[in-house]
Amino acid sequence: MNSSSERPGEFALIAELFAPLARNASSAFGLTDDAAIIAPPAGHELVITADTLVEGVHFLPGDPAASIAKKALRVNLSDLAAKGADAIGYLLALSLPRSKDMDWLRAFASGLAEDQNTFGVALYGGDTTSTPGPLTISVTAFGFVPHGTMIRRAGAKPGDLVFVSGTIGDAGGGLDVLRNGTKDNDYLADRYREPQPRLKLGYVLREWVNASIDVSDGLLADLGHIAEMSNVRIEVEASRIPLSPQLRALWGEDCVVRAATCGDDYEIALAVPYHSHGLVKELARGRAKTPITEIGRVTAGQGVVLIDEKAREIPVSRRGFTHF
Predict the structure, then answer these.
(1) Does domain 10-146 have CATH number 1.10.8.80?
(2) Closest Cα to residue 186, out of 106, 264, 250?
(3) Which residue from 5, 151, 309, 315 could staple onto 101, CB 3.0 to 4.6 Å apart?
(4) CATH number belonging to the domain at 161-307, selected among 3.40.50.2300, 3.90.650.10, 3.40.630.30, 3.40.1280.10
């Protein structure tokens, strides 16, 4: 093992840090080949998703290496959760600047190992390159669903109720804390750095919901994707959006609109048939052990709106994060 902080060659790096992460994926061949084999179980389909994280955009340069690794994996697992998939593994592509030495990489690999154990996934392959630019991490995650059961964005219907898991806006508050030093709050900082993919929730509810999406760019922005793909209107009641006490203390009166439009929460928003809403709440609380809150409804029309207690639309200038 290289005991210095200097990086070894690419293949030595893979052998030391990343091949051990493939031990539970026999068809990855210990990362000694150019590709892996994935065979869905009989009657199942393969669900694939990919996300790229860039230093300074999706995480802060000073964030711990283990937390960066976990976030890169978890944002992809969150997409699988929203599709109702049973996650099995991932591919990892790293573009490394010279500033990331072996100490940093060992901590990064350790974070991945912890999350693999937590979420029951394994590394199946990937690529490592050097870059003069910022650290860039691309993950492709995959899982299985029984044939025809993947939850799509399209599918919401007028009369559906809208639910969301967990609390909203915490990651935005955490970024505020970390970037501006506005207040010492480990809870919010952790919510930004290490989101919690709701894998069990998606898995448990996939037969009982009409549409689903993970809240990555902002609650209103992502519900807007469901509205667009389903050709419906979604009304979100501001007073029902679940907010943590820590976020309320940080943002005060501005809390609701800011929470509904900031990204990185990686909670799951769901369109649920009215006749199933009681069962969905019971399954979420019981089998999935995940809190969900009813926040609105699906109606005929288009778009997504935030409304107050008197059903008046609350003006929102920006519905969520956008790269372009």
Answers:
(1) no
(2) 250
(3) 5
(4) 3.90.650.10
